[in-house]
Amino acid sequence: NAGVTQTPKFQVLKTGQSMTLQCAQDMNHNSMYWYRQDPGMGLRLIYYSASEGTTDKGEVPNGYNVSRLNKREFSLRLESAAPSQTSVYFCASTGQGRVSGELFFGEGSRLTVL
Amino acid sequence: SQQGEEDPQALSIQEGENATMNCSYKTSINNLQWYRQNSGRGLVHLILIRSNEREKHSGRLRVTLDTSKKSSSLLITASRAADTASYFCATDAGGAQKLVFGQGTRLTINP
């Protein structure tokens, strides 16, 4: 049982390049999330998907797009990377429905934009 | 803006001592959660306390919630070197599907 798996773990991009962060969970969870973590800022929600087929913006969605490919997979795309997007990105999932519950996190994807 | 604010930002204690971290939030909540993050790793859920609960225990962890003061505390008793990590509180004030995290408390346990 792998839980939440993120790929890649590390990535270096040049300004303007694009890339997709992949996330998959094997816990049959309905809801999935993308957060970014910056020093001194805690975690900030980028996008979330309450259920398969739906996505919604979080606190800091600008510069990102997401796709809920199926119940297991939720990807985050940077169309034109900027240095301000240098961060550690975490995917998370929860099986709770209307009531917020425990989040299960992946190990993170460390992105550097030069 | 961050909903949860942890205090202190950093805490260093000797092994065996108790560690207390505090979290304050701004709006009404249904529940509050605490997470631990070891260096370079993802967050791990520790405990969830609902708005109608005042205190909850899990092993060496004790969490209190004071909704009138909009604050929570996490107590780790008899600390161990393995407790060295960052600890975050998170609330559902952003909505049922949007946990909002604080900036965290970095705890260091000295042997």
Which radius of gyration of chain B do the C-alpha atoms yield? 13 Å
Beta-sheet strand percentage of chain B?
over 45%
Multimer state: heterodimer
Please identify the structural class of chain B as seen in this structure.
mainly beta
The helical percent of chain B reads: under 10%
Shape descriptor of chain A: globular
How confident is the prediction overall: mean pLDDT of chain B? 92
Supply the number of helical segments of chain B.
0
Number of helices of chain A: 0
The greatest inter-chain interface is formed by:
A-B, 28 and 26 residues
What is the mean predicted local confidence, pLDDT of chain A?
A: 92
Indicate the overall shape of chain B. globular
Radius of gyration of chain A: 13 Å
Biggest pleated-sheet summary of chain B = 6 strands, mixed
Order of helices and strands of chain A: EEEEEEEEEEE
Low-confidence stretches of chain A: none
Question: Major β-sheet of chain A, in short?
Answer: 7 strands, mixed
How widely separated are the two ends of chain A?
A: 36 Å
Helix-strand topology string of chain B: EEEEEEEEEEE
- Helicity of chain A, in percent? under 10%
Explained architecture:
The complex is a heterodimer of chains A (114) and B (111). The model of chain A has no long low-confidence stretch (mean pLDDT 92). Chain A has no helices and 11 strands. Helix content of chain A is 0%, strand content 51%. In chain B, strands 2, 4, 5, 9, 10 and 11 form a 6-stranded mixed beta sheet that branches. In chain B, strand 6 and strand 7 form a beta hairpin.
Key descriptive features of the protein:
heterodimer; A: 114 residues; four-stranded antiparallel beta sheet; 0% helix; B: 111 residues; six-stranded mixed beta sheet; five-stranded antiparallel beta sheet; 54% strand
Short description:
The complex is a heterodimer of chains A (114) and B (111). With 114 residues, chain A is mostly beta strands.
